[in-house]
Amino acid sequence: MLKTPAAALLAAILAAAPLAASAASPSGPASPYAPVDEGAVVVDLLLTRPFGLVAVAAGLVLYLPAALIQSIGGNPVEPIADALVRRPIAYTFERPLGHFPLD
Q1: Are 19 and 79 in contact (CB under 8 A)?
Q2: How far apart are CA 63 and CA 85, in angstroms?
Q3: Longest dimension (CA), the chain
Q4: For residues 70 and 76, is the Cβ–Cβ distance under 8 A?
Q5: Residue 14: alpha-carbon gap to chain centroid
Q6: How far apart are CA 38 and CA 19, in angstroms?
């Protein structure tokens, strides 16, 4: 007889545990980015972003002859534009400060 109320109490506690965990967390919108380390922000600001600017400038300079050669050969220009222009611009200007993507 003692097993049934104990099992019901245990089931109620297990069912209510996720509700208690969600009530303890802040109710604001969840950020898509994990918290960053201050050291990562400093390294990003002082080292990575300036190198990103150099990569953007080099990509823009190299894009014109590479696109010209690609178009003369009848090949699509989009892969060249993506590799030399779009990705360096996104890495330098659109990426949040201190976040380094792994892909």
Answers
A1: no
A2: 7
A3: 86
A4: yes
A5: 34
A6: 33
Place of tokens 């002859």: 65
∠ CA 30-31-35, rounded to 5°: 125
Domain residue limits, the chain = 39-103
CB 25 within 8 A of CB 54: no
Chain position carrying tokens 């330098």: 92
pLDDT (tens, 9 = 90+) of the chain, 103 residues, equals 556 766 665 565 655 555 544 444 555 555 566 677 889 899 999 999 999 999 999 999 999 999 999 999 999 999 999 999 999 999 999 998 888 887 5
